[in-house]
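quick one before i forget lol
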Amino acid sequence: MQTIISEIAFTFVDDAVALASGFASVARDIAAEMLSSARARLLAPVDRLARICDVGGVLAAREAATLRRRHRATSWQSRPAPRRWRDRFNIFRGLHDLT
């Protein structure tokens, strides 16, 4: 009798932990999307200025190379390497080619 009660309790605790981790994952994804969209809105003028100043077509070539890499990565069903935190929120990382 006690084993049934302990199994029910352990099952309940395991389900509660799985539910909490699922909520944490959803909250993390929502926060990441909000930060990404806020970054795009805030840096739109900088991106427009960079495109205007891009005389040699460096940004267009870089975007084409990025798209090719992404297509190649998805065609092999592999995940890209995780980016470091300091690179993820660097607002000028797209301008490193313009020296």
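fyi The longest helix spans residues 2-42.
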